[in-house]
Design goal:
With about 290 residues, the chain is an alpha+beta fold. It contains 10 helices and 10 strands. The strands form 2 sheets. Strands 3, 4, 5, 6, 7, 8, 9 and 10 form an 8-stranded mixed beta sheet that branches.
């Protein structure tokens, strides 16, 4: 067996993608994380590989590692270490900050459903708040629970000086004239197909982790557009929401493994997120299009 601290060092490194981030969460220095990753690698016969900016594991003792992770997840559920919550970029902050009691929050930078689902499957994280639940594959490789929280309309943002800012009743033809990042097919198959069908998305981003500069930041040229939802738009109050009406909708949901979903800690998190959504909707008129789902 490995200690809680050693396996946490490895898994937080994989989750957050860097030793400094993992060290900050665990209150230690980077060299300590390096030693913990090395000890786990030797214990389980693992090799770390970096692919497209992401760290992945390969090795001979995956079953033993999964057994250890299951034990350590039970320890977190019993309060021996913080539970781990990942969220979607930008808009999730309104719901998971401050961090729910007994939980630590992830980097909120995954583009798509693949990486968070893999982290849930491997018990690296305990829950995932997603704003793209309709992009989760119908069949995934582990039993999961998906609790719908709300349905959000997807619209567009632009610089306040954009030619379309302030215009009413914009058509698809109006929107198609301007650059817009392509929603990645690998991470968002349904959304990518919808956008392709309506002719939106011309600029390939080519990144696996979200950064503002590649998405909303592109609007600084006063020509490019960016996809948004009511929750995400709150993070960019200086940008203009275009009057195009909803292009489509996607579900906001909490996802976890089925074998921990009935635990009181997960039930409490579900209730807390619903309460925070209700509070936000009641106090922020810009969320009037957010359809809550009990």
């Amino acid at each position: 067996m490995v200690t809680l601290e050693d396996l946490a060092g490895l898994d937080l490194f994989l989750w957050h993608g860097s030793e400094p981030r993992a060290a900050a969460l665990l209150g230690c220095n980077q060299s300590t994380i390096s030693r913990r990753v090395q000890r786990c690698s030797e214990m389980f016969g693992l090799r770390l590989k970096r692919r497209q900016g992401e760290w992945t594991l390969s090795g001979q003792h995956d079953l033993l590692l999964m057994m250890e992770r299951e034990i350590h997840q039970v320890a977190r559920l019993l309060g021996q270490a913080p539970l781990r919550l990942e969220g979607f970029p930008t808009g999730a902050l309104a719901l998971i900050q401050p961090a729910p009691p007994g939980w630590c929050v992830g980097p909120l930078d995954s583009l798509g459903t693949d990486a968070p689902l893999a982290l849930l499957r491997d018990r690296v994280i305990d829950a995932w708040l997603t704003d793209a639940a309709d992009d989760i594959p119908a069949s995934i490789d582990f039993p999961a629970i998906i609790w719908p929280l709300a349905r959000q309309p997807v619209t567009l943002l632009a610089h306040s000086a954009h030619p379309l800012a302030g215009e009413n009743h914009l058509s698809l033809g109006d929107l198609q004239r301007f650059p817009l990042p392509v929603i990645p097919a690998a991470g968002f198959p349904r959304t990518h197909a919808i956008c392709a069908d309506i002719g939106l998305g011309t600029v390939e981003v080519g990144k696996r982790r979200y950064d503002t500069d590649s998405w909303e930041g592109q609007t600084a040229d006063q020509v490019s557009l960016a996809f948004t939802t009511p929750l995400n738009a709150r993070a960019f109050p200086t940008l203009a929401r275009l009057d195009s009406g909803p292009l489509f909708t996607n579900r906001l949901a909490l996802v976890c493994r089925a074998d921990v979903g009935e635990h009181p800690r997960l039930q409490e998190l579900h209730c807390l997120l619903l309460a925070r959504l209700q509070h936000l909707k009641s106090h922020h008129p810009e969320l009037d299009r957010l359809q809550l789902q009990a």
